[in-house]
């Protein structure tokens, strides 16, 4: 089950399309969909989560809490809409594209992909692009 929660004035348009897409990402990785909660918030909200749970006093676009067990993909994905908007400007991409990249990124972590090394980051970016292309099909 995929749910979308809002701690800011932002709301996804066409939630069902996003829900189907996230399900397709999970299925494309031969995983099973568990409970996925997306929480859209602002920088301040996510900064407090970053300090409270990770002891990091920095802004970020995403924090994910992974509850995956085996192939059953579950977790809470917090996304700062403000940070995504700023990153979209910085990378000169559409907000919707950057948002989908971040949404896919969280799911890919649950599927076992990492991004700490250069090699892992390159694979993660390839997977993000692959999964973003599923959105428009």
UniProtKB/TrEMBL annotation:
The EC designation for this entry is 3.1.-.-
Any single GO molecular-function term of the entry would be: zinc ion binding
The domain of life for this entry's organism is: Bacteria
Q: Which UniProt keywords apply?
A: Cytoplasm, Endonuclease, Hydrolase, Metal-binding, Nuclease, Ribosome biogenesis, rRNA processing, Zinc
Q: Where does Zn(2+) bind?
A: 105, 109, 115
- Can you supply a Gene Ontology BP term from the record? rRNA processing
- Xref: Gene3D superfamilies: Metalloproteases ('zincins'), catalytic domain (3.40.390.30)
Q: Which SUPFAM superfamilies match?
A: Metalloproteases ('zincins'), catalytic domain
GO CC term, one of those recorded? cytoplasm
Q: Record keywords: Zinc included?
A: yes
The entry's free-text remark on the cofactor is: Binds 1 zinc ion.
**Per its UniProt record, what InterPro entries does this chain match?**
MetalPrtase_cat_dom_sf_prd, YbeY
Where is it located?
Answer: Cytoplasm
Q: Does the keyword Zinc apply?
A: yes
Which cofactor is recorded for it? Zn(2+)
Q: Which family does it belong to?
A: Belongs to the endoribonuclease YbeY family.
Annotated HAMAP family:
Endoribonucl_YbeY
Q: What does this protein do?
A: Single strand-specific metallo-endoribonuclease involved in late-stage 70S ribosome quality control and in maturation of the 3' terminus of the 16S rRNA.
- What protein does this entry describe? Endoribonuclease YbeY
Q: Which gene encodes it?
A: ybeY
């Amino acid at each position: 089950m995929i749910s979308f929660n809002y701690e800011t004035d932002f709301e996804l348009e066409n939630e069902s399309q996003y829900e189907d897409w996230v399900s397709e990402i999970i299925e494309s990785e031969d995983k099973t969909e568990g409970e996925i909660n997306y929480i859209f918030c602002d920088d301040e909200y996510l900064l407090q989560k970053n300090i409270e749970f990770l002891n990091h006093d920095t802004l970020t676009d995403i924090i994910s809490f992974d509850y995956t067990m085996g192939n059953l993909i579950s977790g809470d994905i917090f996304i700062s809409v403000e940070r995504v908007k700023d990153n979209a400007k910085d990378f000169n991409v559409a907000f919707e594209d950057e948002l989908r990249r971040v949404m896919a990124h969280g799911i890919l972590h649950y599927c076992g992909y990492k991004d700490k090394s250069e090699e892992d980051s390159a694979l993660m970016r390839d997977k993000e692009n692959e999964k973003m292309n599923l959105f428009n099909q």
